[in-house]
Amino acid sequence: MLKIMLGVIVVVVAGILILASMKPDVFRIERSASIKAPPEKVFALINDFKAWTAWSPWEKKDPDMKRS
After folding, report:
1. Helices marked H in the chain — which ranges?
2. pLDDT for 40-50, tens place per residue?
């Protein structure tokens, strides 16, 4: 009984390794967002470090946040 269980475990692990070896070595994750504003206005907000408080979602989530 123990030999059968070990055999099944070896076959399952081997199957997982074979499937993993068939996957691509490189992958890419992308995000995109549509902003209904002209590029100049968006760039002005992102480019000015002091203006980040106006749009950053982390401002309200972490009031003890320190910037440097």
Report:
1. 2-21, 39-47, 52-55, 58-61
2. 988 988 898 88
